[in-house]
TrEMBL record:
Pfam families: adh_short. GO terms for molecular function: oxidoreductase activity. GO terms for cellular component: membrane. Keywords: Oxidoreductase. InterPro entries: NAD(P)-bd_dom_sf, Sc_DH/Rdtase_CS, SDR_fam. Belongs to the short-chain dehydrogenases/reductases (SDR) family. This is Short-chain dehydrogenase. It comes from Sulfuriferula nivalis.
Amino acid sequence: MANAVMIVGATSAIARATAAAFAAKGHDIYLAGRNADELGRIAADLAIRYRINARWGIFIAEDMASHAGFFNQAMAEMGEMRGVVLAMGMLGDQQAARDFPLGAEVIMVNFTAAASILSHCANYLEARKQGFIIGISSVAGDRGRQSNYPYGAAKAGLSAYLQGLRNRLFHSGVRVITVKPGFVDTAMTYGMAGLFLVASPQYMGERIVAALNKSADVVYLPWFWRYIMLIIKNIPEAIFKKLKL
């Protein structure tokens, strides 16, 4: 599986669409997630529809002590890996997350656990001196807001981590791309009030794969979120703190 792509957090809508977009280009796929039944169904569908080799393994984000073993097992099955897409995330109840036990879980899944599995992927790709890492962060990390600051803080940390990896792995020929989605029509956003300019998972998957053929290190999806966030980031703090965002 020399051209295989690992998808971490593979049962999310964005991850499924991204896996399908890679499979359509002939890449073999390794799916990582916690739901064995769902992973098996997705892998079987990809293998049949695109005539590629699709495998899967159980990955528990919170169990960071297991990440090295998971990665070694995945590599034993794949043989080789071309790149990885980090698509896992946990929004959680942001009101409840104001109490730190739940807030800590949101931060741990979106940042600490993400950094843990990416560290194994980065070391592998750096040794091979080729490949790519695509990390799905969020526009929520561009500026802390009262509505989702535990989630946003974790994504801000992930964006900084990916930036550091990009600086480190550039010298080894490994590409690191940070993807910052706006609102996407997924289970994570289902029923949320105030959503606008909502993109489909299929659009996201196709654009994530297409990002490998472009030079940008940080990709906002859809593209106009770059300018929306540029405005939001430049609102003076004295004014911003009075807003209810």
